[in-house]
Amino acid sequence: MQSSVHVDALHPMSKISKNIYGQFSEHLGRCIYQGLFVGKDSPIPNVNGMRTDVVNALKEAKVPLLRWPGGCFADEYHWRDGIGPQAQRKRMVNTNWGYVVEDNSFGTHEFLELCRQIGCEPYINANVGSGTVREMAEWVEYLNSEGDSSVVQERWANGRKEPFNVKYWGVGNESWGCGGNMEADFYADVYRRFQTYCRDYGDNKLYRIACGPNTDDWEWTETLMKKASKYMDGLTLHYYDVPSGKWKDKGSATEFTEERYYETLVRAAYMETLLRGHLAIMDRYDEDHRVKLLVDEWGCWHDVEPGTNPGFLYQQNTMRDAMVAAITLNIFNAHADRLGLCCIAQMVNVLQAMILTEGDQMVLTPTYHVFNMYKDHQDAELLESCVFSGTVTEDLKQISASASIRDGSVTVTMANLHATEKADVLVNVEGMEKAAVTGTVLAGAMDALNTFQHPDTVKPVTLEGIVRTERGLVVPMPACSVVTLKFNA
Ligand code: AHR
Asked: Do 349 and 480 share a domain, yes or no?
């Protein structure tokens, strides 16, 4: 069967918040240290300690939002340990991730400097598990107040006169697990209490984020919505794609069978079921859809690379991961009206990373390229797209797609999930029949990857061979590929 994609450009729907293309950076392994931050005295080129190569790549991909400092780390992080002169900061053991010593040289000011350099919005996840209400309230005050209070004077003493006006605040992380092992009912009350003392300062209205469910924990969503929805702007969802389905033996990031490849993609597509399920529960308590669902941890979780610290979660990244990213981002686009923000886990050197580093070397992963190819969807308006195609396995369609419009230009992103068969996809964009069309393609074997020795094995190139026919455009998609089409009026 010939696959086809039909897009209606005449009736734009909801805005796709750029924040669903957000990222996550945790004090875990080599994400912050070495990956993003090397310190001012490093021989690796940097600006105020931030790696220039990495920051430039992230700017190119238009990263809109960055979550920090965790993850599980967030609920053991005490922000005062990370301010003031770096040499005098407290040293702590990172008990979640490898028991390495954390010297707190990257703290609040460094995080906000990183966001400034990338040009993205900061999202701070505060400590509820082992922290106090006062600690969180004062963090908000420290960053956002202009008043002449002692807390604000500390900020001034640390070199920052103007408030930072941080808007996005998470109240605990995975409070059902590493964030305190709480029950939903109990956490709902804790959440209500903590958020009460997170004040709005000046014109900066906080976006209050409650810890939501793990995967398909429908009851957690039900309880949080029932007891606390009127006190929150967003409820998080965490979902990791573990290819084998077994946490103890997740499988290699680089060596896998075709069967495992399809299993991984089916698990990625499960995001659709999760969104529908949680949103349906949320509907019962918030019929105006004021509270957004925030998938602030998602991505593939493979076994670590052989020989690396198991606590550092360092994994390679192949075309399989790129396909997972493409499927997931197409799903997010389709639910843009209900999603407030999303963050892939994680940004550098951890889990499904955008970027890998080794010393002064940097590699852009296939996942990075997908984000870069999808960036024109950010803040554009969603268009309805209908996909007709056969399946590659179970009920997983061979083609995944989404589309958006901005300033009269249409972006269509498509993935051909078939591991070995190309697809000539018939594409029609109603209202753009005469538009000039260009295409970009990312393709490779399902296990193709970029290494420090061969950093450009997988990279986007111009898509040749698009043919205009009476029935529409015929777009030649290689096996295991992602394509972006641009229609310019
Ligand atoms: O992203 C790695 C870990 O996964 C995070 O710290 C935690 O929130 C989740 O379990």
From this structure: no
